[in-house]
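$ ./design --mode recover --in tokens.txt
reading tokens...
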């Protein structure tokens, strides 16, 4: 009789012991592991602007689903689409786009990703942009996400803006020169060439939080200011 009454109590005790055995022996290690897991999903650098906010949210979502690599490849493919089709950015910002138009655009963008979208992370992201009328920031998101991935790999963006497209040899010489300077901070550089006819000539070099403006437009602006101050 006593044995029967004791059996439920014994079973409860065994369950408690089993649960205790699943906990880590060192609570501090458990806390450190939890903190590391949270840190791994956090964007490596802070970004600003609406496209930066969306890029950071996408980074966190991709990190949580272990799809950072495939997400990066998908956005890189979309970035190439923007480079080849200069009118795409204007189309995405058109206020006259109907829900059907947006759906067709999203489907077409998915086709350009070539099936590398693991877990459909980017597909869901594109739908979110479409539903919130934010497809117009997609190009910026692609650029900002690349910045996050570079930072996660210990890279630093070296953005070189010129009035006309620069050849690979010139870009390589610039990369080598900056890599030897204090601006690189000993990090691996990732060259991001851009073309902006408005600078009229020369270069605008951006690395980290520094900007070196050697453009013709900047020199003209300084000259005009000097003349206006003199007069």
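writing sequence...
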């Amino acid at each position: 009789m006593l044995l029967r009454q004791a059996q439920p109590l014994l079973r409860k005790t065994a369950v408690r012991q089993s649960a205790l055995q699943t906990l880590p022996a060192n609570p501090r290690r458990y806390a450190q592991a939890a903190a590391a897991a949270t840190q791994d999903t956090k964007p490596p650098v802070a970004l600003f602007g609406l496209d930066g906010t969306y890029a950071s949210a996408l980074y966190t979502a991709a990190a949580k689903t272990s799809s950072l690599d495939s997400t990066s490849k998908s956005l890189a493919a979309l970035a190439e689409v923007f480079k080849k089709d200069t009118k795409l950015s204007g189309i995405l910002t058109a206020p006259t786009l109907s829900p059907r138009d947006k759906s067709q655009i999203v489907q077409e963008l998915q086709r350009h990703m070539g099936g590398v979208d693991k877990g459909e992370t980017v597909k869901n992201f594109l739908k979110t942009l479409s539903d919130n009328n934010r497809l117009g920031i997609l190009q910026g998101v692609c650029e900002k996400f690349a910045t996050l991935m570079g930072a996660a790999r210990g890279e630093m963006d070296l953005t070189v803006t010129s009035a006309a497209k620069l050849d690979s040899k010139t870009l390589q010489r610039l990369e080598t020169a900056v890599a030897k300077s204090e601006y690189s901070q000993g990090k691996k550089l990732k060259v991001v060439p851009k073309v902006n006819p408005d600078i009229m000539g020369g270069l605008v070099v951006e690395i980290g939080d520094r900007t070196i403006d050697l453009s013709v437009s900047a020199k003209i602006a300084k000259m005009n200011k000097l003349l206006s101050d003199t007069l």
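exit 0
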